[in-house]
Amino acid sequence: MNRKPIRLRQIAVAAVMMIALQSWCSTVENFSLLDQNGAPHELHGYASSKAVVLMVQGNGCPIVRNALSDIKAVRDRYAPKNITFLMINSNLQDDVAAIREESRTWNIDFAVLDDEEQGVGEALGITRTAEVLVIDTNAWDLVYRGPVNDRLSYEGQKATADRHYVAEALDAILNGLRPEFDRVGAKGCLINFPARRRHLHDVSSIDTRNVVAPSTR
User: CATH classification of 8-204, choosing from 3.90.1310.10, 3.55.40.20, 3.30.300.30, 3.40.30.10?
Assistant: First the structure.
């Protein structure tokens, strides 16, 4: 029997993988948040919708501001097909008054859910603004997460998009299918999650001197 000690690095990697898996869970649990105007929104309260589209908003983020016309165009096309569109702000520095002012200044005519304690953002594995989550309400599955389309990048922007990821995901749902892509890397401003960082630090600080791996033959 060969018993090999587990190294600290292995545990840290395992912890990161565990968090990554948790952040890409397919089933979205119910939650309730107030928007920038104080109105309550419960996710499962939109059960009569075919899907819920949730875009991550952040005050001052240039990519969010630039993507507003894109997400509005998708909403104008799909809201009449019984799709619900919301935004969520998990930035600690953006209080409800600031979110309301940003909405007024930039004509953000979506309900922006104020995730002031970051609990929903943590559960959804949010890391950046401008990411869009598409939730199929049939089983509350998170079937797509990523940018609205491929028009924007950190280096610049294209005049028109070649791929319309959110629209494609919604077309799939409306046709009883799964989207071709379930995840595309999103461009956006990083969101600070102190609790997540503390968790990673705590895990990486575990004393592994007496921890052993499963036996192998």
Answer: 3.40.30.10
